[in-house]
TrEMBL record:
Keyword Protein transport: yes
Transmembrane regions listed in the UniProt entry: none
Protein name (record): Vacuolar protein sorting-associated protein 26A
Domain of life where this protein originates: Eukaryota
Region forming the signal peptide: none
Length: 344
């Protein structure tokens, strides 16, 4: 069978979404075989649609090359715990582990193939929580769906990087891979190209539910409104401790939100990180807090200014156990300029 015929057969297929990954053509042909046997499979769960044509003894890779390359990196990718995830094709990959109500943030890099220009109708990233029944393969039931617009319609001529953030994501269920179904969380990057076919890339990550009835803490502080040179005073009480805590930090985070609706863009910065404890606490123990704000460049809190943007501040308590699982307790605070009366 000629390669040209293979390409015609392949191009005749219905392929709604063109994945970023290389579509692989693997082939085999016996000595007395006159016509190729064709096996076409659609794997919606993998990061690419896979096309398999059995025609010769050599692998022909890259018959259909992507228009660009997409890569996703997480903000704390090097520090975050990585766990193995078995893909549908049997291959095991390492993916980052998240807890519910964590921020999922990072950067998406898109690089067109050398000498090519990618025209598009917009670029977006989605955070999806999905359930797939294997007897109904290809149909996903989304129980979590968040979207961020990365770019307006235009063209890509060279490598471009887009920051993204999904704040305090509610992920109610733990990742599960079973015999008849799977529950997964993915980041889905889509480059819309109209008649040319959208370019789609998937990035898996794992979610683990915190252990209930094992950790109960109370975070007490003297007030919720502080001026820029103020001091945060408070205490942390450990009411129930059934897990081995390794360390505990207090962070000041600034969250900047711009736009509205599906065009909302959120960026979170960690302005300060203060170690409160190194070692395992016991039930009934209390940890004092004294955090000076003057060393940090804090602006006043801005709430929905002209329906265009907001700037908010949070105290974020982070506890890490011996298995590097993280537990969070977050509280919003108001920052005002000294001399200005804080708004109610």
């Amino acid at each position: 069978m000629k390669i040209q015929q293979m390409r015609r057969d392949a191009l005749g297929m219905s392929c709604d979404d063109i994945s970023l990954d290389v579509i692989t053509i693997s082939s085999w042909l016996s000595a007395d075989e006159s016509e190729a046997q064709k096996i076409m499979r659609r794997r919606a769960g993998d990061s690419a649609d896979e096309l398999v044509l059995m025609t010769s003894s050599n692998y022909i890779i890259g018959a259909f090359k992507p228009a660009c390359h997409i890569s996703v990196t997480f903000t704390d990718g090097k520090a975050r715990k990585q766990v193995p995830l078995k893909k549908e094709n049997g291959r095991t990959v390492m993916v980052p582990l998240f807890q519910s109500k964590e921020n999922v943030s990072g950067k998406i890099s898109i690089e067109p193939v050398a000498g090519k220009k990618v025209e598009h109708n917009g670029i977006k990233v989605e955070l999806l929580g999905q359930i797939e029944m294997y007897f109904d393969r290809g149909n996903f039931y989304d129980f979590t769906s968040l979207v961020r617009e990365l770019d307006v319609p235009g063209g890509l001529y060279e490598k471009k990087t887009f920051p993204f953030e999904f704040s305090t994501v509610e992920m109610p269920y733990e990742t599960y891979n079973g015999v008849n179904l799977r529950l997964r969380y993915v980041l889905k990057v889509t480059i819309s190209r109209g008649y040319a076919g959208s370019i789609i890339e998937y990035q898996d990550f794992m979610m683990e539910v915190g252990i209930e009835d094992c950790l109960h803490i109370e975070f007490e502080y003297n007030k919720s409104k502080y001026h820029q040179k103020d001091v945060i005073l408070g205490k942390i009480y450990f009411l129930l401790v059934r897990i081995k805590i390794k360390n505990m930090d207090l962070e000041i985070r600034r969250r900047e939100s711009t736009g509205s609706g599906t065009n909302t863009h959120v960026v979170t910065e960690t302005l300060a990180k203060f170690e409160l404890m190194d070692g395992a606490p016991v039930r009934g123990e209390s940890i004092p807090i004294r955090l000076f704000l003057s060393p940090y460049e804090l602006t006043p809190t801005y709430q929905n200014i002209n329906n265009k943007f907001s700037v908010r501040y949070y105290l974020n308590l982070v506890l890490v156990d011996e298995e590097d699982r993280r537990y969070f307790k977050q509280q919003e605070i108001t920052i005002y300029r000294l001399g200005d009366a804080p708004t109610s």
